[in-house]
Write a structure and sequence with these properties.
This protein is mostly beta strands and 329 residues long. It has one domain. 3% of the residues lie in helices and 53% in strands. It is built from one helix and 18 strands. It has an eight-stranded antiparallel β-barrel with strand order 8-9-10-13-14-16-17-18. It has a seven-stranded antiparallel beta sheet with strand order 1-2-3-4-5-6-7, with no helix packed on it. The relative contact order is 0.18.
Length: 329
């Protein structure tokens, strides 16, 4: 399979950020034909004034700021995450996954030393890249009998997160403080089998959708986007004259913005894809625990959600988690 392109809610999200489409046809092939017509145009929405999201059938682009300070673009088998002059390209092909560090403005990297101020600097805003999966109630990666269709290819189930704002409240010193902010989490779950998912007609529960035998499947996945808010306690440890090691842990909350499934396949030798938007009984709000440790702008993180992926009784009980690296502003 190929890649196309990881709480308590302390603040109430206001407004509707995206109108979700939940209608689904009886078969995935019928859905694909309908979606091709619906997605003939570009849907654009502006969030918080300067955040622009552009969705097309084969391309999704998210940019922030007048000069596109932060960019996430998914186009075919390539995902590009850019933050100012720095960026990362993730390409999936028949040989595997290739990750490349980019100079977004074709400039040479300059080394410099910046004197740290005596204020508390939070480590949240920036971008993160990680791998996702989920656990059963027994904390196992092995799906129970009858739920094997939810098995994932973890090595190709990525998430990339744009944390667009943060603020820190020092607790009497520049070495300890409370951190919060706002971010957006873009997740894809790549199914390991030759299947997708759908709602059962009568019960509306999530079940396996078996793809047509005439399709040669190269990639089947579910994409989900969340808005996130953290509440962290961060400690900073001096490491040299100006630099610091930072450690933080706390809770994180999220609100689902939109979701879809996408299948890439060949039929009669022709490449095609089926992208179907829907809510898929996903929990609209969720909370979990997160922790991170790093040095200066680079850190590693891990997040585990106590809220199940699907609403209670409307799908397999699975708890998402992600691990990865982060580059903070």
């Amino acid at each position: 399979m190929k890649k196309t392109g990881t709480l308590l809610l302390i603040l109430a999200f206001t407004g509707i950020l995206f109108a979700q489409e939940a209608a689904q046809a009886d078969s995935l092939k019928q859905k694909a034909e309908a979606i091709e017509e619906v997605n003939a145009h570009i849907d654009t929405t502006v969030v918080l004034g300067r955040l622009e999201v552009v969705e097309e059938t084969d391309r999704t682009r998210v940019s922030l700021g007048k000069n596109e300070v932060i960019i996430v673009e998914e186009n075919g088998d390539t995902v590009i995450v850019g933050l100012g002059d720095k960026g990362v390209s993730i390409v999936e092909d028949d040989d595997g996954v290739i990750i490349t560090v980019l100079d977004m403005k074709d400039r040479k990297q300059k080394k410099y030393t910046k004197k740290r101020s005596k204020r508390f600097d939070a480590h949240w805003a920036g971008f993160e890249l990680g791998l996702n999966n989920y656990l059963t109630p027994d904390y196992s990666l092995v799906m129970p009998a009858g739920e094997e269709f939810m098995d994932l290819n973890t090595g190709r189930s990525w998430n990339w997160n744009l944390n667009i704002a943060d603020f820190g409240i020092p607790l009497g010193t520049s070495y300890v403080g409370i951190v919060s902010g706002l971010g957006f989490e873009f997740i894809n779950y790549n199914f390991d089998g030759q299947n997708s998912i759908e709602k059962e007609t009568d019960t509306r529960q999530i079940i396996e959708y078996t793809l047509p035998d005439t399709w040669s499947i190269s990639n089947s996945k579910m994409n989900i986007t969340y808005a996130t808010i953290p509440l962290l306690l961060e400690f900073q440890i001096p490491a040299g004259k100006y630099n610091r090691i930072h450690l933080s842990a706390g809770v994180i909350g999220g609100m689902k913005l939109w979701s879809n499934t996408k299948v890439k396949y060949r039929e009669d030798g022709d490449k095609s894809n089926a992208k179907v938007k829907g809510d898929y009984n996903l929990s609209p709000f969720r909370w979990g625990f997160t922790a991170r440790v790093g040095y200066e702008e680079v850190s590693v993180f891990a997040t585990y959600y106590m809220t199940p992926l699907f609403e209670d009784g409307m799908g397999p009980e699975l708890h998402p988690f992600s691990v990865g690296i982060a580059l903070t502003l």
